[in-house]
C-alpha cells in the first residue's frame, strides 16, 4: 500500500490574495453611511482571530452580524475572488489536477464563495471543508451553521481529527488556526504562506516560511510551473534607485536587498543586480559573481563595469545610454522579462530575442561561445533522450550564441547534466 501525503490549504489570504469576508463587506455595505467604520471593525476582528488574540468563533459571529449581505452580493464576491487567486497558486493549476485526491481546502470561510473559486483548479468539491451561511427565503444572510466544527475555536483541529486521514499531512496557511494544526500534532509540517501577508506571530512558529506556493512545491520536490522559486533569486539593488523600480521587482517575487554598495557577502549568491546611474562594479567582484544572470543599469553603463566580462560569463546587461525618463520602469521590466521568459530584447551585450511564454512546456536556456557545431550537439542530446521539441530559437553575435528550446513536460533529468557538459557552454538554466 502506497504511503499518501495530504496537502491542507487555507483559503483566505492564502489561496486568494484577500480575506473574503472583508471583500464581501465592501460589496454589501457599499452604500452604507458608516461603511468605513464598519469595514474597520470587520478587518480588526479578522486580524485578531488570525493572530490568535480573539477566538475564531467570536470573530466569525461578529463579522457575519456586520455584513448585511445577501445572495446577490455573494455572486459579485465570487466574480471578484476569481480574479484575486494568489499568483503562485494560479500558475500551478497542473499540480492540483495531478494531486486532486490529496489536496484539501480547509477554511473558516464559507463554501458558498470558496467552492466556485477553487473548483476551477481541479479541486474536488468533496475535499472542500468550510462553513455555510444560513439565509432567509428572500436570500438575506442572517447567520451560519453553528454545528459545523469550522465555526468553532480550534475548528480545523476538530475537523481533521474527525477525518482521520492516513498519511503525512502538510498544512499551508497564513493564520493562527493553520498553526493550531501543527501545535496539535495532526500535521507533519506547517508552512507559513507569506505571499499576501506575513503575520510575525505566525511566521515565528512555522516549520518553513513559504513566500509562494512555488517555494512549497520546490522544497517538497513536487511538480511545479517554474523550475526555481523567484523568492530564492537574490536581486541586489544598489544606490539611489526609484521606489517604482524596486516595487516592480518586488511585485514579481524576487528577493530584494537594497544597499549603497556591492557588499562582499552578496557576491557569491547574487542572481540579479539593478544599479543607479553613477554606480560601478569592481572587476574582481564581477568575476566572482558566478550566479549572476543579469544586470540592469539606470543610465549609460559604459565604463561602469566590463561588458566583455559579462558576455564571457553569460550575464545579460540592460542599460539606457540615453538616460530616458522611462528607464525607472523600463530597465526593471527588462530584467524581469529575461528572468521569466529568457527575453534579451534591448540588451546591450546579447543577441536580441523576444519570445512569449509557452504553456505546457519547459523552457531551457543555453548560453555558449559562438563556435560551430553547438546546436548540432544540443539537438543530438535531445534526440538521445527522446525529447519532443515544441520550439527552438538561436541568436548569435560575435562572442556568444543564445539558444532557447521549449520542450514537452516529460524529460529525464540526466538531460540537463548532458547539456551542461557540452564544450564551450557558458551558462545553462531552466526557466519553467
UniProtKB/TrEMBL annotation:
The domain of life for this entry's organism is Bacteria
Q: Which UniProt keywords apply?
A: Amino-acid biosynthesis, Hydrolase, Magnesium, Metal-binding, Serine biosynthesis
Cofactor section: Mg(2+)
Does this UniProt record's set of keywords contain Signal?
A: no
Ranges for domain ACT = 363-432
Q: Name one GO biological process term.
A: L-serine biosynthetic process
Q: Which GO terms describe its molecular function?
A: L-phosphoserine phosphatase activity; magnesium ion binding; NAD binding; oxidoreductase activity, acting on the CH-OH group of donors, NAD or NADP as acceptor
**Catalysed reaction equations from the record:** O-phospho-D-serine + H2O = D-serine + phosphate; O-phospho-L-serine + H2O = L-serine + phosphate; (R)-2-hydroxyglutarate + NAD(+) = 2-oxoglutarate + NADH + H(+)
What pathway is this protein said to act in by its record?
Amino-acid biosynthesis; L-serine biosynthesis; L-serine from 3-phospho-D-glycerate: step 3/3
Its Gene Ontology cellular component terms are: cytoplasm
Q: Which Pfam families match?
A: 2-Hacid_dh, ACT_AHAS_ss, HAD
- Quote the protein name from its UniProt record: D-3-phosphoglycerate dehydrogenase
Q: What organism does the record attribute this protein to?
A: Pedobacter insulae
Amino acid at each position: 500500500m502506497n504511503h499518501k501525503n495530504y496537502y491542507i490549504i487555507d483559503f483566505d489570504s492564502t489561496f486568494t490574495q484577500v480575506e473574503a469576508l472583508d471583500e464581501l463587506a465592501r460589496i454589501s455595505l457599499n452604500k452604507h453611511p458608516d461603511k468605513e467604520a464598519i469595514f474597520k471593525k470587520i478587518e480588526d476582528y479578522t486580524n485578531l482571530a488570525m493572530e490568535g488574540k480573539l477566538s475564531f468563533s467570536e470573530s466569525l459571529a461578529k463579522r457575519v452580524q456586520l455584513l448585511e449581505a445577501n445572495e446577490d452580493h455573494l455572486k459579485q464576491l465570487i466574480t471578484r475572488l476569481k480574479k484575486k487567486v494568489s499568483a503562485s497558486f494560479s500558475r500551478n493549476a497542473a499540480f492540483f489536477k495531478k494531486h486532486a485526491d490529496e489536496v484539501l481546502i480547509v477554511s473558516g470561510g464559507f463554501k458558498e464563495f470558496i467552492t466556485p473559486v477553487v473548483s476551477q483548479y481541479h479541486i474536488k468539491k468533496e475535499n472542500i471543508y468550510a462553513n455555510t451561511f444560513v439565509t432567509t427565503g428572500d436570500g438575506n444572510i442572517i447567520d451560519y451553521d453553528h454545528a459545523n466544527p469550522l465555526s468553532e475555536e480550534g475548528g480545523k483541529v476538530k475537523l481533521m481529527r474527525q477525518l482521520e486521514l492516513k498519511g503525512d499531512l502538510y498544512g499551508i496557511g497564513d493564520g493562527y488556526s493553520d498553526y493550531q494544526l501543527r501545535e496539535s500534532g495532526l500535521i507533519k509540517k506547517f508552512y507559513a504562506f507569506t505571499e499576501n501577508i506575513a503575520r510575525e506571530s505566525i511566521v515565528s512558529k512555522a516549520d518553513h516560511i513559504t513566500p509562494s506556493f512555488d517555494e512549497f512545491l520546490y522544497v517538497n520536490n513536487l511538480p511545479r510551473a517554474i523550475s526555481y522559486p523567484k523568492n530564492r533569486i537574490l536581486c541586489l539593488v544598489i544606490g539611489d534607485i526609484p521606489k517604482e523600480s524596486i516595487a516592480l521587482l518586488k511585485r514579481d517575487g524576487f528577493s530584494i536587498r537594497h544597499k549603497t554598495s556591492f557588499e562582499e557577502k552578496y557576491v557569491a549568491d547574487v542572481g540579479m543586480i539593478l544599479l543607479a546611474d553613477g554606480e560601478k562594479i569592481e572587476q574582481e567582484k564581477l568575476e566572482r559573481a558566478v550566479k549572476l544572470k543579469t544586470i540592469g543599469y539606470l543610465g549609460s553603463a559604459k565604463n561602469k563595469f566590463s561588458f566583455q566580462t559579462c558576455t564571457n560569463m553569460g550575464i545579460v546587461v540592460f542599460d539606457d545610454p540615453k538616460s530616458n525618463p522611462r528607464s525607472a520602469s523600463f530597465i526593471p521590466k527588462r530584467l524581469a522579462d529575461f528572468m521569466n521568459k529568457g527575453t534579451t530584447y534591448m540588451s546591450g551585450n546579447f543577441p536580441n530575442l523576444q519570445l512569449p511564454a509557452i504553456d505546457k512546456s519547459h523552457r531551457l536556456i543555453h548560453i555558449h561561445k559562438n563556435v560551430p557545431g553547438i546546436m548540432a550537439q544540443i539537438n543530438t542530446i535531445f534526440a538521445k533522450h527522446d525529447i519532443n521539441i515544441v520550439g527552438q530559437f538561436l541568436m548569435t553575435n560575435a562572442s556568444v550564441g543564445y539558444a532557447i528550446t521549449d520542450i514537452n513536460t516529460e524529460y529525464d533529468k540526466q538531460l540537463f547534466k548532458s547539456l551542461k557538459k557540452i564544450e564551450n557552454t557558458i551558462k545553462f538554466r531552466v526557466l519553467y
